[in-house]
Amino acid sequence: MKPWFIVFRKELKDLSRDRRTMTNILVLGALLGPVLAMGLLMLTMKMVADEAEKTIRLPVQGAQYAPVLLDYLAYSRIQVDEPVEDPAGAVRSQEVEAVLEIPPDFGERLRQGRPAELTLISDHSRTRARIARSRIESAIQGYSSAIGSLRLSLRGIDPVISQVITLHDQDLSPDGGAAALLSFLPYLLIIGIMQAAMVVAADLTAGERERQSLEPLMANPVAPEQIMAGKLATNVLVSLAVLLLSLGGFALGSRMVDIGEAGLNFSLWSIPLLLTFLAPLAFMFAALMSFVGAFARTVKEAQTYLSLLVLAALMPSMLQMVLQSRVQGSQLLLPIWSHNYLINEVLRGESLAWTEWLLPSAGALFAGVAFAFLAARLYRKPGFIF
């Protein structure tokens, strides 16, 4: 039996005995992401559907100056309420979603054929307020278009003549909050793998130092590279287990939530596809964490180093989540950056070229081999034990 495999079995047995650590890794680390993501999706979809159907209560300042407009708003399920003393304060305190201000000269401007001005006060940073504002703006634009068409018709002019260009907007993005979830899902998958690799690496290096079990292990007539390879294989296996549980959690959540309406395509075939695609990334994280964890002398020190490393490594994923830029060419060789983008494409149901599958995996494998080589060199140094 190969020495590295003996170390691999020994480390797995040690980890299985530490039930608290394994519970944190396999249950909290793997399933927290799917539960959080599906919960957010359910909440977002329900909120968008409710806000789109419910009657909006809109306080109006100067309602007496535009009675016809208010009747039109009521037809659009916008209920006109009494004016408030402090419109801006009421919006800031979330007492109301929006306030409409009608100036005294509104009717006079309409009679003269001049543009009539309205002021809609709302907080664009709040999701509910944005939905309400969009519906109010659409209703006011509809009223404005109707008045303009009537003016042209009264003058014997076909209203169509004012429509120089007709633009049809075909939106291919997912509905509601699913677009934000699409950019959030890869982040949850990647951070789950990283956290698993971080915990295992800290336990297999600094943890063994504190338990004083590392020195007897290194005293065996076995090459340090074999010991490192056994520990690395343990880390990779646990990381893949966390990834598989996370993908299974997302697949189960997709059966509980109708994600098809949100534009997500997460089928059972996505599990082996993403598992194969992300396996090299799990190897890279395990090698990276093993290399950095070898520096630490205590578990607390290892956790400090590895936590900072997790934040630094997740920066590409967070940038891709915000920018949503296309990754192509040599950028596909950049791990995390390319993986984040391509996970999104898979969930959208897009077809990918073979280079888009191979190049990110090749980049992750190359980085993983480099970190594994550096970790093996650390295991050979006397300072690793003494």
TrEMBL record:
Organism per entry: Thiolapillus brandeum
Name this polypeptide is given: Sodium ABC transporter permease
Protein's cellular compartments: Membrane
Segments passing through the bilayer: 21-43, 184-204, 236-257, 269-292, 304-323, 357-379
CC terms in the record's Gene Ontology section: membrane
Primary site of residence: membrane
InterPro entries: ABC2_TM
Domain ABC-2 type transporter transmembrane: 30-376
PANTHER family recorded: ABC TRANSPORTER PERMEASE, ABC TRANSPORTER PERMEASE PROTEIN NATB
Keywords per UniProt: Membrane, Transmembrane, Transmembrane helix
Organism phylogeny: Bacteria, Pseudomonadati, Pseudomonadota, Gammaproteobacteria, Chromatiales
Protein's membrane topology: Multi-pass membrane protein
Molecular function GO terms recorded: ABC-type transporter activity
